[in-house]
Structure formats: structure tokens, C-alpha cells
Amino acid sequence: MIDKIKNICCIGAGYVGGPTMAVIADKCPHIQVNVVDVNQSRINSWNSEDLKYLPIYEPELAPTVKRSRGRNLHFSTNVEEKIREADMIFISVNTPTKISGIGAGQASDLKWVESSARQIAKYAQGETIVVEKSTLPVKTAETIKKILSTVSNNNKEIKFNVLSNPEFLAEGTAINDLENPDRVLIGGENDESINYLKDIYLNWVEKEKILTTNLWSSELSKLIANAFLAQRISSINSISALCEVTGADIKEVSRAIGMDSRIGGKFLNSGPGFGGSCFKKDILNLVYICNYYGLKKVASYWQKVIDINDWQQERISSIIVKNLFGTISSKTIGILGFSFKADTNDTRESPAISICKDLIVEGANLQIFDPQVSEDQIAIDLESEPKKVSENDFDNFGWISCNDIYDAAKNADALVIITEWEEFKKIDWQKISNLMRPPSWVFDTRSIVNKKIVLKNGLNIWQIGN
Ligand code: UDX
Ligand code: UDX
Fold it and tell me: Catalytic: which of 9, 10, 278, 402?
């Protein structure tokens, strides 16, 4: 029997594994926490002297890492050794949507979860608790259990217990979400293992907030929480289009319905469509599972949440083209924000990607600025290299990245706000108006700027749902 959890290993030093382990290490100085990853350069960044080079931008992450790193929080690529030493192992690897084979485009690709389970089976010693942290399709724990018992050859010395403990943190507020969770969910079959994990959370979370369920309820609840949140966004986004044609204002509508305590005010901000690593992937997964079990109507119901999201993104590029006299060929467009939401450098499924690609296809020159996203990342996402800037090559469409808001606005015919970064709410519109080429347009896809001030400075403005 495990006496007490003294050593934790987390496989995957990404957006989930990194911040989650940083908070566990911070709250539990008596536990050694080892985060391992196959990606050496990512590990190097986690270990960088200057905390500004951590691989993830997340408010409060750097001071949290600083308090524990080297004391009881360690980042390395020693997967084998750290698995061997651990009493409890979290699987926090990525589970992207499959791109080929059965379930392509919908099912999650579990190859990294599977390879993590194989590594655990091979190297773990004694009794080990394996915790699924990654969002996984229902019944994945079954697969993990099977791999653990067959690969470890049913060796009597080695015993595994599998728990599901999905992460509900949102990027941009991860540290606060981890420190003050609405709830912690632990699914499992073995009370003793559940209690070991519960004891860790009890170091900082009230016991009333720790829910225990069976494995399948826990796995499914994570998918459903994300599906419900995404559904709210698609619902409000669908109404944004209706507001634009009727003269209603989406912000007023959101406020009015959100004050109904049965509806609630959160997640009613209309925008360019949801992005991020989870929503789309999890709903596709839900659709796949429903189809698998023959629930066609349920599958098509949830598919609609994704359809509205794709439509919202396409709608924005067409509105831009339409307002710029039906053509943007050789026009310059400043893009403000490339991450999928504010306060993160993550661009996975960011609406900026499809909007920028559409504008480039239409022949535009984009001047992109994001406070945290690097030029290299933009190049990966847009699948093209930045243009070599020379003053007179505006006939060639493409993109460049800029150092600030005003650089992005220089000589631009339009400025498109895609991410709701705080600094975009404080733009000096007079300065912008002097930099842009008239008749200049501002497209505010998050409805965050003061329309009156923009108009007063001689600019035209389109705002979502207005
Ligand atoms: C998370 C969750 O775990 C996933 O379920 C959720 O639905 C999306 O977000 P995240 O932490 O954001 O994943 O992914 P990512 O930032 O890509 O980090 C995963 C890390 O695992 C990467 O650094 C990758 O190198 C590492 N990895 C992957 C391994 O160390 N070993 C592997 O076999 C595979
Ligand atoms: C989400 C869930 O919130 C989190 O619980 C889960 O663990 C992972 O997935 P995340 O994707 O990091 O978190 O961010 P979230 O704040 O949920 O935003 C997702 C997307 O929805 C973003 O593109 C955001 O801009 C958009 N959004 C959110 C809106 O368009 N309007 C809103 O009102 C809220």
C-alpha cells in the first residue's frame, strides 16, 4: 500500500500540465513534483533563468513557478526515471482531433495517451496511481487500464489504479482557476486511490468542492462542460447577426438576458467565434461518440454548435470585404490580436487564423500585431512566411508582423480587432486616424472599443452585433 503521496510525475509540460503542476507544487511543499516532456526545448524554456522565457504566457504563472522551481518542482526529459520514482502519475499530453483513419476529423487521437500508458507500464514500480488529466473520450480509462495490465505483464509486484481528474482551467486565468476552482472532479473505482488524490487538493480546496464520481461520469462531464460553454457562445453569436439587421444591440441583449438568474451573465460575450484547444475538439468528439452509439439526432444537434462557429468566422471576413467596396485586393489591413483570447500566447483554433487566411486569399496585405504571439508562431498558423517588407511591394498579398498597435495601423485601409487584449481598449484613436489611409475602417469583432470616439476621429466603424 502507498503510505502517503510523496512523489508526483506529470507527463506533458504543456498549457495544462505546466500550470497545474506549478500550483500543486506551490500548495504542497511536502510533495516532489516532476514534470516531464519529450520536447527538450520546451523543458529548457521551463527551466530558463529569466522567467520571461517560460514557454507559456499566463498571468501569475511566473511567480508561481519561481516559488517552487528547484525546491519541489522540477522540469526534465527524464521520463523513465521520474515515472519509476513516482507514487502518482498524471497524463497531461495533447489529444488532438484525428486527421486520418477511422473517425478522422472527429475522434480524438489517443496515440500520445497510449504511448504514455505504455511508458508507465514499462517503468513504474510498486503501486502507482495513474491520473488522466487530458480531456479524453469516455471510456479511455478502460484502454489505459488494459495497456497497463497487459504491458506490465500482470506482474504482481506492480499495481495500477486509474483515476480521471479532468482539468477545468481556462487559459488566461489558469492560476486563479487552479487556486480557486468551482469544483474538483475525481472519477475512479477505488476509494483508497480517490482519497490519495483528494488529500492533495485538500491542501487548498474546501472539501465541499471536491466531487467524486465513477470514471465514466468524470470523463463525460468534462466533455459536456465544454460543450455547454461553447453552445452558449454559438447561441449568442447567432443572435449577433440578428441584432445587426434589426437595430438591436447584442451587448444590451446579453446584459438583459444575463440578469435572469436562470440564465446567468457569464459566457455571453459575442465575438469572432470560439477558439482554443478544447471546445471544437471536445464537441467533435461528442458528435463522434453519439454517432458511434447510433444517436444521430443528438450528434447533429451538437454539430450545429460548431457550424455556427465556423459561420461566424466566415461572416466576419465577408463583412470586411463588403465594407471595403467589395474588394481588398492590394489593400492593407491591420490585424490586432492573434491569440484565441486575451492573456494567452496560445493560438490553437484561434479565429484569427481563418480570418487572416481568408483576407490573404482575397489579396490583402496584413500587418499583424499581438502582444504575446511570436512571428514564428504566426507563420506556422498561416502556413506561409512573412513578406520581406519594402515600401512598394504592396501589390503582393501576404502578411508581416508588427511591433505595436500603431505599426499595424500605418497606411492601413482597415484595422480589425480580433482578440480582446486590454491594451486594445485604450487605443489613441486620434493617432490611429492620422496613420491610416482614408476612408479608414475599424472592424471590432469583440465590441470592446468606444464607437463614439472612433467616429469622432473620422473613422468608420463596424462592431459585432451592433
Ligand atoms: C491539453 C490537454 O491535456 C488536452 O486534453 C486538452 O484537451 C488540450 O489541452 P495542453 O497541455 O494544452 O493539452 O497541450 P500541449 O500544450 O500541447 O502540451 C502537451 C505536451 O505533452 C507537449 O509539450 C508534448 O511535447 C508533451 N508530450 C506529448 C509528451 O511529453 N509525450 C508524448 O508522448 C506526447
Ligand atoms: C475552456 C474552458 O473554459 C475550460 O473550463 C476548459 O478546461 C478548457 O476549455 P479555454 O479554451 O482556455 O477554456 O478558454 P475560454 O475562456 O473558455 O474561451 C474559449 C473561447 O471562447 C475563446 O476563444 C473565447 O474568446 C471565447 N469566448 C468566451 C467568447 O467568444 N465569448 C465568451 O463570452 C466567452
Answer: 278
